[in-house]
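Cross-posted from the bioinformatics board.
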Amino acid sequence: MAGVVLETLSWKKLIALGILLLLLLLSFFLIGGLVAPNPSNVMVVLGTKCLRKGSHMQEEWFIPFGGNEKCDSINSVDEDRVYDEGISANQIVFSFWLPYMRDGKQLDFSRWQQMLLTVMQLDIQYDPKFPMVKGNQYNCSLLAFFELGSLHYDYYLINVRVPVEPYKGINMEIGSLMDIWVIGIHQNGGFTKVWVSIKTAMFPIVLAVLIWFWRRIMMLTRPPNLLERTLFSLGIAMSLLNLPLEWLTLAVDMPFMLMINDIRQGIFYAMLLCFWIIFAGEHIMDQVERNRLKHYWKHLAAVIFGCSCLFIFELSERGVRLTNPFFSIWITDVGTKLALSFIILAGIAACSYFLFLCYMIFQVFRNISAKRTTLPSMSSARRKFYLGVIYRFKFLMISTLFCAALTVCFFIISQLNEGQWKFMDQDLNLEYTSAFFTGVFGMWNVYVIGLLCMYAPSHKNKPMETDETSNEEEVQLTHLPSETSSVQAFAAKAAAD
Amino acid sequence: MEHVFYDDNYVNENLWKEGKQRMFNCTDFHGNLFTCRCRESAFIYALTSAAVAHSVARACAEGSIYTCTCDYNLKQPDGKDWEWGGCSDNAKFGHKFSRKFVDVIEKGRDFRYMMNLHNNEAGRRHVTTEMKQECKCHGMSGSCTIKTCWMRLPLFRTVGDLLKDRFDGASRVLPGRRRRRKFTLLPANTNHKPPGKKDLVYFEDSPNFCEKDTSIGFTGTKGRECNATSLGIDGCDLMCCGRGYKSESYTVRERCSCTFHWCCQVKCKVCTRTKIRHTCL
């Protein structure tokens, strides 16, 4: 690829652009950490034990609180009334109203809160028949309950019955169920607002840069090469991810939003992986003319195979939940095996991808060290030019590694921070998890913008293309960028070691 | 303050469970033990504040009381609402409520108040440290890129059991140096280390609880039921302070050979049994 912007850009402009992008990146982290609340919040609701009086066939809803709508309830299943009136398990309905009441007011869900997923926790009293080590209560694991991809309505009423069927043996040996807790996890409205604002702001910017990039390519006399097309696709994937579809959820019930977001994210990461492979491949300085997708079929197949495994898993988990919110693939043995096998296959694909990528980088590096020996034999002006290009490439590659390192670091920090539960409120409230999300999202935006700007074809003519026209020289020139990038990769590797 | 009344039952029930096997019987006191500075009162203070914290947290989760506040997670000057940042945990609210509600009585600068505050805090701490963290991953395709955690409230009985252990290991303290209106609590036995945040402390030795004591409103162990075969504190020898006991037999009709499904469908027979009751003289 001859004459990209990066090679012809002056130092001043390069530094200015770099600082601008860094500031943009920093502001993303700060917005997430200081403005946005935690991405999601939890609501622990204890079920009210309502009594049903009517016949068992009757369809009836029980409301846990309120005036005369409130159901007839008991405080505990071992209170005297239960024995005196002979209340049976089939008469007890655990009733939940989400969201709960606060400050004497009934809270209502806002559509900004986007989603609700719930987990059930059962309190089962100790029974001497089933001994345990310590304590008065069994340490029951959590049960996945349901997942809603949209919070279109203000309130949700849940009634749970655990009826006993002595002849079929249903619910017979489950112990004495004292309480059911429902833990509802919803996205925070504040986080959605910040998130959607970032998307709304970044979408036109990336789109504008993308259009500028494509116009530059169209202005060339030659057809766009593979790397340029890949970069353009990466830009499209980024724009797709940026598209602020969340605005629609405020008006329309869109339960498929969770899945759409996962798929958008998946497409972007798949595109990024493809880009890295093609970028490395196009810079191997051997005499093979690549520039065609079919030379990368092995590597791309790994990406596509891994992604389709995850896609099938996604469809069978979140896809099925569109029709049945209570579904989970993990509850049946067959489903668990199936889900695990898909995840393992995707993992194998990911491993083979990284092996391919490492091998390619190794190839680039090997060729570079071979080419490097010829560097001192060149003229001084030319060497200076080569070194300059090497340095600029270093700049870009370091920023790539910087992005990856930052992602990993912030992920670890947010995970550690989430693990410790702060009991008392702190004065300085830095939301690491939010900062991680907005920061990483902004970072990939900045990264794509940077790539689109740097790798757009330049209008300026390169100085060395003026006099020399020999075939050998041209071959060398076409491989120029790869040389530098691999040097850079080597430098980064050394730094990492 | 209906829920605090509800609490009262809560505490009584527990005290009764603990006190049944001890010399002091909580139903005999009618609240006067609060004025004593002994081991038993330390236990009552701790148990009360723990019960308030626990039951308020539970009631907030059930939505059965109206005083729970949202206590927004995010400190925002404006736009501070439920929609923006959600509400904080019930357990946090219960803890704060207990601190405000139970500690408010202890306003003086006296050493006794310091001690009571310490015991109150110790009780609440048992509730918070017994809570268990549970988490749920819900990131992309259910991965752990987003993890939300919450605290699982312990059974109050577990807290009560732990406090009972602290009661047995409570340490006697003396007022230490005064620091900014606060006394430091020094152990009476200099070989002991200073009491920790979760330890119960007391100042006076307990009355022997054998005889009637009008100053603390205790009626003595006369007439208390005891266990003739036990060698422990609930046994007739110790409980009756060597005064001896009388035994009588009585018949009782009670539920027996019960079978039940998961909760409450209990099928019982009614049996008539003859039992022997021992009471202290």
